[in-house]
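Task: encode each sequence below as structure tokens.

Item 1
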Amino acid sequence: MKRYSPQEMADMKEDLYQALADGEIDIRQAVKMIRKILGMTQKEYAQKVARISPRILSEFENGSGNPTLSTLEKITAPLGLEVAFSPPKSWRAALKDS
């Protein structure tokens, strides 16, 4: 995978944060973006960063897994992300319009 410069990584993190804040991406898409920013494969990220089984990460990213909250926190922590509940996208859109 491609390695990015520190500035490129910072810009990509900002894009990720904005997309999450706007509700444009879900947590699975965010995890894939995190790996892309770090330039890591699923296996590398799972083992070296999140310290979980590569199978768990793969199943989660592909939509067939159901990780625990603790596992989600391990997956998202490297970029300072917190796992939280948020209002539905339709509600956030209505809020912006008012």
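Item 2
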Amino acid sequence: MTISRQLAREAREWTYEQLPADVIHEAKRRLIDMLACVIGGYDSPPSQVIQKLIRQVGGPAESTVCGSGERTSAMNAALANGVMLRFTEAMDRSIEGPNGVTSHGHPGEVIPCILAVGERQHATGKDVIAAIVLGYQLMNRLSYAMGGTVAVSRFGWKHEIRAGVILPLIVGKLLGLTEQEMVHAVGISGSFTGELGILDHGSEVVPMARELRIPYAAYQAIFTALMAQNGFEGPDRVFEGHHGFAEVMVGGKIDLDRLTRRDADFNIMYTTTKAYPVNGKLQGQTEALLRLVADHGLTPERIARVKITTSPRVVEHMGDPGTHRYPETKETADQSAYYAAAVAIVDGSVRLALDQFTPERLRDPGLRSVIDRIEVVANPEWRNDKAPTEVEVTTHEGTTYRHRVEHPKGHVLNPMTDAELEDKFRGMSSRFMSEEQMTRIFHAVHGLERSNDIGELTRLLVFAG
């Protein structure tokens, strides 16, 4: 039996009833977290470009664009809402198990696609919860099989190459595709997938196109699933075949048995929530600097030098002075160890409202002055994603303050409470929504299994005039 057929069979057999209560609860938490990001990115430049384009090209009134309430095709809605989410850089991250040392990307980005297709199909709340858990399960498992995000990057790809072969299964589940139709959908989409590493490389300026990595794959996945439903055929052996996914994308370095082996647990439980809208590997240094600033009354004028000791991966990906010391784009700024540190020092906060990442703020002389005093160094022994962060701040008076963070707030081993997660939602949404509207969204998500139509939730996400 081919790889794609085994995965298609698993997807078709997946049910809400097999999910334990704690997994259902975590799926709701993931939904609240990702909706916060969708709303937070509503007025971003890439979102406005995509929304304008959607209005130009039109489409059937199947699904809702968050914020505006525009009704468009499920493909367009998944694209628009996905771009909003990705812009914020506040989406979740996964590791392999509670003590995992390998990062597995951002599975929460499947949620805009699930909501768009679910709304098109008038899916129930239970259908959507099951699809979310399945999306995390298969996206993460493919990453496990490939060795994680860093392993994939060695071949020049971003880890979102997973979406092109996994999202057709999730979409197909919601559309009610047959097993063979799912196989065709995966085959078609998988044959035309691939996100180049230049979209987020440590030695390159990160462009707006970064925001399309999973959203564009979602658009394609919906289209190819509909093609398969209407009789279009794709290769059955898209994973293991000659010049297929395994050979071309990762040079054969993939454990196909691991990919098809059904898990005994639910890996959605190993998800990290970001407390700050910066790269996940910068959460620790942000938390450490904010603690030092608050505890010791540190101001930019007092600080002579800042030394951040971190993993080689952070230095490679976020510490290149040529591209990341003085970031030119928002997309580079939220990946910059220098910029994130300077914002924490100058403002005493890194806000979820994203107002610290505007073009004007990127050119702020005050921030640049602090950046000039920041050194980012690697501890060669910290070679995995379990690495801590150490921050050392030396003042002009000669005093040195130090703080180390092992597991920043939101990590699997230091999780946010439900109340803290809702506070994050407020931090990203309050400039658009009243407390009353946010409360209605919380109630809808917490009672999602009682909903007969996911449209009841998506209608609550409209706030623009």
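Check on item 2: The chain has two domains: 3-275+422-461, 280-405. Residues 444 and 456 are 8 Å apart (CA to CA).
End of task.
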